[in-house]
Amino acid sequence: MASLLLILDTNILVHNVRQDAMWEKLRDEYQLLVVEPTPLISVVTAGELRSLARQWNWGRDKRDRMEFLLGYFQTVPVDTPEQIAIYAEIDNFCLERGRVMGKNDLWIAATAALTDARLLTSDADFESLDGVFLNLEWVHAPES
Fold first, then answer.
1. pLDDT in tens, 47-57
2. pTM of this prediction?
């Protein structure tokens, strides 16, 4: 039986780089580094993660883990007319409902919608789009 195609929100990669308890849960439940098909990431996630590495002053080990992940997962660009149209549609949908969504999240959502991949995230930023533009897989923090 084939696995569902996943697209990873930036926070999923942050948990991996940090090797925290959330990553242990993700590793155990989703097997992200061995599952087929290989999960997707948006090129926006690559830029956002590299920016966070600078902001948070990640050392060599974390930056090496980050670069491994960015090379491992399949990167999806954000330059097709269809994706741009979906981005505009999602942005308008959110604004009509009084919800301002971050631009990186909008691109990630548009990429999830275009690829029909299930969006794996550990925050609620995409909740209003679930079942409308994309299918959301929301991972809750592990209990202490």
1. 999 999 999 99
2. 0.93
